[in-house]
Amino acid sequence: MEMKVMAAKTLLTALAVVAALSACTRVGKDYTSRMEARQQAYAAAAGEPVSSFRYFSLWSWEPLSDSELAIYTRANEAWLLDLDGKCRNLEFTNHIALTSSASEVSAKFDRVITGGADAPCFIKQIRPVDIKKLNSPQEGKPREIEEAARPAK
Prior knowledge:
The protein is an alpha+beta fold. Helix content is about 30%, strand content about 25%. It comes from Dyella kyungheensis.
């Protein structure tokens, strides 16, 4: 009888592990799909490469992979940076910095710094991002918004 109980517990544990791994795989696929969609959206909204851009502060930034980064210098001004090689921890760091000369960031010269002991990542290419094109609904379809009444107090 005790063997049957142990076998049942082992089977339940194995099923729980399989379910957890399945959920992790599904979450990983969702994350990968979202990242690929963001990369495609930025690539479609990016213009021809430029040699540099001027900025006085970073308004925001969005890692797209370990070798691609969107930099916002203003709410309506963004740049897509392609990095030379892989930039360790780019997708997981809490802060970044850019090297520059007289507030100008140049391709093939300046770097993205992710902090810590990680080596700086050289900027291989800079492309301006058309924010209006990036934010426009895909294929003319408006985003669906679910409306709900505020609960009465």
